[in-house]
UniProtKB/TrEMBL annotation:
Residues 23-463 form the Aldehyde dehydrogenase domain. This is Aldehyde dehydrogenase family protein. SUPFAM superfamilies: ALDH-like (SSF53720). One of its GO terms (molecular function) is oxidoreductase activity, acting on the aldehyde or oxo group of donors, NAD or NADP as acceptor. CDD domains: ALDH_AldA-AAD23400. It comes from Corynebacterium kalidii. The active site is at residue 246. The keyword Oxidoreductase applies. The keyword tRNA-binding does not apply. It holds the Pfam family Aldedh. Signal peptide: none annotated. Keywords: Oxidoreductase.
């Protein structure tokens, strides 16, 4: 089907709250993008009531009927893809080109379709002639989806697509930094979904807290910081809510001594710098064997020097700004700590503080102490520390030394050897010769303080339902 929002101006007009709303600024230019409604806890209450009232009829549809709606929603997103891409580029900062805004819009429709491809047939647990037990998954009810500012549309779809397929209704709370793109996405989805099935509330932290503690919300899905995830886990105890928490990470990459530096350099670069490093499962600390350390550093510099940075609507750019002042300051502090310690800056390191926007140059830091703050704290930005090692056991120990474990990677010309090392790394996902690529067919989730629960695939779909066994 053709989307009713084929242009940016159409979509912007549909969601802009006018002067009465909160002004959202472009992180690349500082100019206004639009106005988001300042919803309140009362607005949230109305949204939860609507979702509750709509859930039974939505759950009464067959799985095939719900999937047909999600396929139509994917069609609508594809029809509005360019408008959505421009909106998220203006608001979040990621360029249209490269693995940026168009990539994010395309992922939204792909996730909707793939979520409907998972087989969730009834499972026969026991059938021995005397006992017959079958297992099915039933809807939870109302799901609260609280999303981040780094991939606002894509992660929202990760949350709502499986929730809707399972027969739940959803109330979405976007980040205060990037509400417009989520409002736009929901507007497009609701052009085909039944009324009341999907609600969005654009408010502050008080609204998010109210959603995470609401007695009629049966599950909360949250992607964001570990600190906020802890608060949600604590607050959920009173109502024993189900939770999926995808929290912070500080992903390690280990380059073995048999890797080809020139061959892996571009993969390493995008593993670290996709979305300006503002990705939960980005490569954030890189351990390289001493025998190829200098060559890997040199090849990374070559790649990084050829990646243009600037305003996202310029088709030539593949890197954009850091999304907000708070995150810019974190990256700035950590890079300063590295340079003050005597680490060697191979590229970048010093932003132009007089220029508009939150642009921080692509920064590569070598010969850095493994205990430096840039290594042990999550920078969530465009700065990669490169740590030299000589003993593989020591590198694995360092990779496992932190209290987070979202993703990791091992780089080698010998995949069997790389898999053996990967099995020793403490992370929810370990990639071989790549980093950070997620797939709607493959379960994804963290360990340690990177959260719990999985998303994607059949396992992620099941987490949006409650198991029911019929025995007899």
């Amino acid at each position: 089907m053709n989307s009713v929002y084929t242009t940016y101006s159409q979509l912007h007009a549909a969601i802009d709250a006018g002067e009465s709303g909160r002004t959202i600024l472009d992180p690349a230019t500082g100019e206004p993008v639009g106005h988001a409604p300042a919803h309140t806890v009362d607005d949230l209450e109305r949204a939860v009531t609507t979702a509750t009232d709509s859930q039974r009829a939505w759950a009464a549809l067959s799985d095939a009927e719900r999937c047909a709606y999600l396929e139509q929603a994917a069609d609508a997103v594809e029809g509005a893809a360019e408008a959505l891409a421009e909106l998220v580029s203006r608001e979040q900062g990621k360029p249209l080109s490269g693995p940026g805004a168009r990539f994010e819009a395309g992922a939204c429709s792909a996730w909707l379709r793939t979520t409907c491809s998972h087989d969730l047939s009834e499972e026969t647990v026991v059938d021995d002639g005397e006992t017959r037990a079958v297992l099915n998954y039933r809807p939870i009810g109302v799901v609260g989806a609280i999303g981040p500012w780094n991939w606002p549309m894509m992660i929202t779809v990760w949350q709502i697509a499986p929730a809707l397929r399972m027969g739940n209704t959803v109330v979405v709370k976007p980040s205060e930094y990037t509400p417009l793109s989520v409002l736009g996405l929901v507007e497009v989805l609701n052009s085909v979904l039944p009324e009341g099935v999907l609600q969005v509330v654009s408010g502050d932290g008080e609204v998010g807290a109210a959603l995470s503690t609401h007695p009629r919300v049966g599950k909360v899905m949250f992607t964001g910081s570990t600190a906020t995830g802890r608060k949600i886990a604590e607050a959920s105890a009173a109502s024993v809510k189900r939770l999926t928490l995808e929290l912070g990470g500080n992903d390690a990459g280990i380059v073995l001594d048999d890797a080809d530096p020139a061959e892996i350099a571009e993969g390493l670069f995008w593993g670290a710098f996709i979305n300006m490093g503002q990705t939960c499962a980005a490569l954030k600390r890189l351990y390289v064997h001493d025998s190829i350390y200098d060559e890997v550093c040199a090849e990374l510099v070559k790649v990084a020097q050829n990646m243009p940075m600037g305003v996202g609507l310029d088709e030539n750019n593949v890197l954009g700004p850091v999304q907000n002042q708070m995150q810019f300051d974190i990256v700035d502090r950590l890079v300063t700590a590295a340079t003050d310690s005597g680490a060697r800056v191979l590229l970048g390191g010093e932003p132009d503080r007089d220029a508009p926007g939150f642009f921080f140059p692509t920064t590569l830091v070598a010969d850095i102490d493994p205990a430096n703050p840039l290594v042990v704290e999550e920078q969530f930005g465009p700065a990669l520390p490169i740590i030299r090692y000589t003993d593989l056991d020591d590198a694995v120990e360092q990779a496992n030394s932190l209290d987070v474990g979202l993703g990791a990677s091992v780089w080698s010309s010998d995949r069997a050897r790389a898999r053996a090392v990967a099995a020793r790394v403490e992370a929810g996902t370990v990639w071989i010769n790549s980093h950070g690529g997620v797939d709607p067919r493959i379960p994804f989730g963290g360990i340690k303080q990177s959260g719990y629960g999985v998303e994607f695939g059949v396992d992620g779909l099941k987490s949006l339902g409650v198991p029911q066994v019929i025995n007899g």
